[in-house]
Structure formats: C-alpha cells, structure tokens
Amino acid sequence: MTPETAETFHEAYPRVLDQVTTCPEYRISTRGNTSLELLDVSFRVADPIQRLPYLVSRPINLAYNWAEVVWYWFGRDDLDMIGYYAPQMAQNSHDGRTLTGTAYGPPLFNEGPDGRSQWQRVLDLLVKDNDSKRAVLTIFRPEELAVDSNPDVSCTIAAQFFLRENGLNLTCYMRGNDAFMGLPSDFFSFTVLQELAARLIGVPVGYYTHHVGSMHVNMPNRPKVRKILAEISGEDYRPPAFRFPIMPVDSCISSLRLLVREEERLRTDTHRHTVRSVAETGLHPYWQQVLLIWEVYRQIIHTECAVSGEVLSALDPGYRWLIGRRWPARMPEAAV
Ligand code: 5HM
User: Fold this and answer.
1) What residue owns the CA closest to ligand 1's atom 17?
2) pTM reported for the whole predicted model
3) Are 176 and 323 contained in the same domain?
4) Within this chain, do residues 272 and 141 fall inside the same structural domain, yes or no?
5) CB of 77 shorter than 6 A to ligand 1
C-alpha cells in the first residue's frame, strides 16, 4: 500500500502531529525524553517545493533551515556555524566543537577514494541509468552504535532518488523523527537537496516520500502540538496563499559557494548587508533572499534594535510572514 499523499508540507505536518498525539501506539522513555510514539509512519508530499508550514503557533526559524542546507552541502560538522542558529545543538556534541550523527554533510558530500562524493556518484548514476534503483545515499553508519554513550547518532538511515516519468523523486528513511521539532527542518533540508539535484541534472522535481521507524512527540511539546491543531481547526483559519520560490536552473553551485562565504561574515558580525549590497553580489534573486534572511538574523542576534524595514520589505512575502511571526518583538512598528 502506498503512503497517504498531501499536496504540501503545510498540509502534511499537522496531519502527522495529529496522528502521533491522538492515536499513539506507545509511550516511551529513552535518553531523558518521554514521548508519544507511532511506529512505521509514512507520507508523501506531491509538491515538495512547498516545504514550509505557515503556522502562527509554530513559526519555524528560516535562518536555521537555510544554514543547515549550506552546512550539509559543504560537508561541515562544526558547531560554530550550526550552533549560532540552534544553540541547543551543543548538547549533542561529544567534544563541544563538532557534531557526528547530526552532521549529514560529511557522509553525503565529502569525496571518497574515487574522488567523488556519494552525492556525485548517485547523480552520475542517474544520468547514465535513468531508471536505476541504486541511487542510494547512506547516512547512518554501524560504528555509531559502537560507543554506548554516543550523544549523537544519525536519525536518517538513507535517502534514495528515483528518476521517473514525473521527475526526480526522493524517499528518505529515518530510524526516528521528532514530529514536532525535527520533522520541519528535515523536510526542508531534504527537499532543498532534492530540488538542487533536479536542477543539476536538468529534470523536474517529483514527489517526496518520508518513511520513519519511530515518529514521536516529546511530552513537553504536547501543549504546542495542541496549539497547532487548534490553529488549523479554528473557525477563522484560512490556509496560507504563500508559494515558496522556485530554485533557478543555473548557477546553484557557484551561488552556494558565495553564500557560505557571506554567511560567515554575517554570523561573525564582520559585515552588514543592505538590500543594495545583496543585489551587488550578483546572486540570483532566489539566493539573494537567503542572504537577506541571514542579515535579518544577524540583526536579531547581534543588535537590540528593530529589524530593518527595508530588508524586511525586500523579502519574499512567505519568508516575511514567517520572520514576523517568529520574532514579533523585533519587527519595526510599521510591520506589526
Ligand atoms: O535517542 P535518539 O538518538 O533517537 O535521539 C535523537 C532524536 O533526535 C531522534 O529520536 C529524533 O527525535 C531527533 N532527530 C530528528 O528528528 C535527530 C536528528 C539528527 O540526526 C534529525 N531529526 N535529523
């Protein structure tokens, strides 16, 4: 039987949260967390470019989501970069500097003995043998369980591309997924990588399928899940009309190289961007938006003033909406 299909992630996310919290199979306690759990959860999203949930009760951190993609792409494992966007990730580090299981970049993008990464091998394979069933990217490593006290074991086992008539489909297999916290960022990163792969080999984006062994919600997040479910079932609720921008066909790799350099300058507060300076980078407007998001985040972290109205106005409406909901106290008066 094939999994249930939703059109967008905005539609899928509350459905998963509802299933896990209203009809959980188990209540488990492991590594300090008590959770409601449902085993063997699968769903498919027909239009994975629509990768954001637009929820007032769960405004996700776009600066983190985009940083995670770039962090993966450059095969990084440092807390310096990712911890700036998500300080709580330091808890998973065994040495206070790096992450192991959570850092999916090294296994996916670092070169192997043949001079190619797993990612590159899989893309090369798909170009030669379109219908291949071998386009697998493995993340979980058996050695991760060799040390009992390992604080960071990969939650994603593998991802598999299927190039079929409709386009490039991606299926991810996870051993465990936190439906409230982890799922939105995992969905975001995996589907950006799917879209990147589709652009690089010049095919349309297909659908995205998610298979999870243990889908769970940690008990402290239950009230937040209730709020989400109340929001979407409220009388006044109207689904958002925002559309996530479409990634341009060319220059993805050079844009990512430029982005990672600019990200560091903003993160370390050694540079400030304006709408004009972002335009002068020569980046495609799609990627300029990512820099603008990080500039907003720089202002939030490194200053105490309201975020620049000029930068906010230059943002894509869906991005602006989410940022306004995530950091309402930092919005300029006109934007409130
Ligand atoms: O005890 P365990 O190693 O499973 O705890 C890690 C938890 O982090 C997972 O169960 C899952 O809830 C969450 N997680 C996630 O949802 C972790 C990662 C990092 O690999 C992820 N998504 N990408």
Assistant:
1) 155
2) 0.97
3) no
4) no
5) no
CB atoms within 10 A of CB 128: 8
Q: Is the pLDDT of residue 335 over 80?
A: no
C-beta of 14 in contact with ligand 1 (< 6 A):
no
Q: Which atom of ligand 1 is nearest to the CA of 92?
A: 6
- Ligand 1 close to Cβ of residue 30 (< 6 A): yes
Tell me the percentage of the chain whose pLDDT exceeds 90: 96
Query: Could you report the per-residue pLDDT of 17-52, keeping only the tens digit for each?
Result: 999 999 999 999 999 999 999 999 999 999 999 999
Q: If you measure from the C-alpha of residue 335 to the centroid of ligand 1, how many angstroms do you get, rounded to a whole number? A: 36
Asked if residue 37 has its Cβ within 6 Å of ligand 1, the reply is no
Tell me if 246 is assigned to some domain: no
Q: Is the pLDDT of residue 271 over 60?
A: yes
Q: Which of 92, 83, 78 is nearest to 32 (CA)?
A: 92
Helix 182-201 × helix 118-128 angle, to 10° = 50
Is 247 domain-assigned? no
What are the distances in angstroms from CA 161 to CA 46, 107, 128, 189, 245? 15, 16, 14, 15, 22
Residue identified by tokens 């094939």 is: 2
User: Same domain for 147 and 281?
Assistant: no
- Asked if pLDDT for residue 336 goes beyond 60, the answer is no
Best of 178, 183, 215, 218 for a ligand 1 pocket test (most atoms within 8 Å of beta carbon) = 178
Same domain, 279 and 186: no
